[in-house]
Amino acid sequence: MQSPQPEKSKPPVKMEQRGRILGIGGVFFKSANRDQMREWYAEHLGLADKGEGVMLPWREHDDPQKEHVTVWTIFPASTKYLDPSPAPFMVNYIVDDVDALLDRLKQEGVKIDAKRMDESYGRFAWIYDLDGNKIELWQPPSAGGQEVQSPQPEKSKPPVKMEQRGRILGIGGVFFKSANRDQMREWYAKHLGLADKGGGVMLPWREHDDPQKEHVTVWTIFPASTKYLDPSPAPFMVNYIVDDLDALLDRLEQEGVKIDAKRMDESYGRFAWIYDLDGNKIELWQPSAKP
């Protein structure tokens, strides 16, 4: 599987020591219209967040017996959970050993939040990047090699299963902007092993219900001057992998969803863009089938 970005991609840096990123554990963002936004995402994309987040299950690429979830949720604009970050979003990264990672980050001079959280569904800590974005680190509990609990304190529910074609399979990309992109890339490469050389970082995973199907989540930083996220007012964009782009777009058009006229067909898949109630740009990606 290749990147949805036009540049040539490289696999993520393999860090030998404990305390490494395994994948995206959560995508959180704020909205002044949280209730309406929840209804919109549930109705149109099948992401039904009833207050505890949507669980998107997946398996590790190199060890399919190990299960994880990516938690997707919308916070109210008044939330303090993302404070003191100035950004309206936060990414949660699953790590294999939070203590080892924090020990190393402390030696490297990274800003670390004093707060810790130990729950039945895992251990949490928070750090800050060069732009002051808050980063959540999550070490899920191991239970027979399976790690399937939610990082949210509320009781979790499985994601809504949409019977028709044109459904969300998982997170295909997490993109955000920075006025200091080069320095930010160096920071994430040095401290978290996410080495983006221009083509994005590929975080491979397998579908939970069909481990033979492989995907990647693409993580990348754009310069503040990028037009790729326009006309969205948000400094971030989420890419969702879908099983049938045409079927989804046909349904969304009937439902009155704002759809961008632009399309992109590349060797690594087909792309389209839509907009949610806050005007956030959403990228839809149907990866190319492997030969």
Describe this structure in words.
With 291 residues, the chain is an alpha+beta fold. It has 2 domains: 21-139, Roll (2,3-Dihydroxybiphenyl 1,2-Dioxygenase, domain 1), CATH 3.10.180; 168-287, 2,3-Dihydroxybiphenyl 1,2-Dioxygenase, domain 1 (Roll). 15% of the residues lie in helices and 40% in strands. It has helices at 34-45, 98-107, 181-192, 245-254; strands at residues 21-31, 54-60, 67-76, 89-95, 111-119, 122-128, 134-139, 168-178, 201-207, 214-223, 236-242, 258-266, 269-275, 281-287. Strands 5-6-7-4-1-3-2-9-10-8-11-14-13-12 form a 14-stranded mixed β-sheet. Strand 9 and strand 10 form a beta hairpin. The N and C termini lie close together (11 Å).
Numbering strands along the chain, what is their spatial order in the largest sheet? 5-6-7-4-1-3-2-9-10-8-11-14-13-12
Q: Regions with pLDDT < 50 over 5+ consecutive residues?
A: 1-11, 143-162
The CATH topology label of the largest domain is: 2,3-Dihydroxybiphenyl 1,2-Dioxygenase, domain 1
Order of helices and strands: EHEEEHEEEEHEEEHEEE
Structural class designation: alpha+beta
- The count of DSSP E runs of length 2 or more, i.e. the number of strands, is 14
Largest sheet: 14 strands, mixed
Morphology: globular
Query: What is the mean pLDDT?
Result: 88
Query: What is the CATH class name of the largest domain?
Result: Alpha Beta
What is the terminal separation in angstroms? 11 Å
The CATH homologous superfamily name of the largest domain equals: 2,3-Dihydroxybiphenyl 1,2-Dioxygenase, domain 1
Share in helix: 10-25%
Query: Could you tell me the strand content as a percent range?
Result: 35-45%
Our count of domains comes out at: 2
Give the C-alpha Rg: 18 Å
User: What's the number of helices?
Assistant: 4
